[in-house]
Amino acid sequence: MAKAKAALLFLAVAVTAHADWTIVSADSKPGRAGVVHRHVVLEDPETNGNATIDLALFSTKSCSLRVIDQPAPPRSDLAQVMRQERCLAGVNGGYFDPDYAPIGLLIVDGKTIAPLRRARLISGVLIGSPRGVQIVRAREFPRHQKLDAAIQCGPFLVDQGQRVRGLEATRTARRTFAAIAGVDRAALGFCSNVSLSELAKILATTRLADDFKIQRALNLDGGSSSAFWFMRENGAAYSISEQKTVRNFVGIVPR
Question: What pLDDT is recorded for position 18?
Fold first, then answer.
């Protein structure tokens, strides 16, 4: 009997140690053109840690992505740019160096601002085109396809519905990301302080919204660059501001 109890206790501990993040609460608010703001609070049973995720969910049949660049000062913050450019929602964009030069591919309004680069960190490209929204590996980039918008970033967080293994697991920071699900569903998102490994696990194993099983997700510039903005149906805005000036943004716009 004692051995059976010990075995059950061991099993319970093993299951808990590998438990997925669980949703504590979730709330959805409608925006314009069918875009929805989803605010999710999660808990990690293993560590009792908490995280919040904000998603701007949209159909690629009715909306697309636009990359908005700020090559020269003065540079505005996300909230100002989203309102000025009449976006429905948005986040900060990709990496840039201390002189604000973009690191990796950048296509804005059909024009290539910076070329594709081969580097381990920037392993993926977020694309907006007449075909919809795509997240592709750098090696998969369609060089001859007409693109309205593209931004190279990384690392990949989710691929083929599975979390990417081997991501950094100790350094926590605010994160922003893009995700696609199915043939015509996509999202831009913001997460409170987690590691890249934790974010990948959350996105791959937690159903953050109905009918939104993430197939691919790509990390965008994080830390103090991270920002999220959403225009609600009544015109009020939900906003998480960046903590430093950034070079570019990714916005959701109606088709």
Answer: 60
- DSSP H helices in the chain: 2-17, 78-84, 196-205
Spell out a b/e string for 179-200, using b for 16 or more CB atoms within 10 Å of the CB, else e.
bbbeeebbbbbbbbbbbbbbbb
pTM of the model: 0.91
Q: What is the spatial distance between Cα 26 and Cα 131, in angstroms, rounded to a whole number?
A: 31
Secondary structure E strands in 12-105: 22-30, 36-44, 49-59, 63-69, 89-92
The full DSSP string for 136-201 is EEGGG--TTS--SEEEEE--EEEETTEEPSS---S--EEEEEEEEETTTEEEEEEEEEE-HHHHHH
CA angle, 22 then 201 then 157, to 5°: 145
Residue 11's pLDDT band (cuts 50, 70, 90)? very low
CA dihedral 124, 129, 133, 135 (to 10 degrees): -10
pLDDT tens sequence across 52-94: 999 999 999 999 999 999 999 999 999 999 999 999 999 999 9
The amino acid at residue 213 is K
Do the beta carbons of residue 147 and residue 141 sit within 8 Å?
no
Exposed (0-12), middle (13-18) or buried (19+): which is 16, by Cβ within 10 Å? exposed
Average pLDDT over residues 118-136: 94
Average pLDDT over residues 36-51: 94
Burial of 206 (0-12, 13-18, 19+ CB in 10 A): middle
Q: How far is residue 201's CA from residue 165's CA, in Å, rounded to a whole number?
A: 9
- Residue 7, pLDDT score: 44
Give just the sign of the alpha carbon dihedral 159, 163, 168, 171.
positive
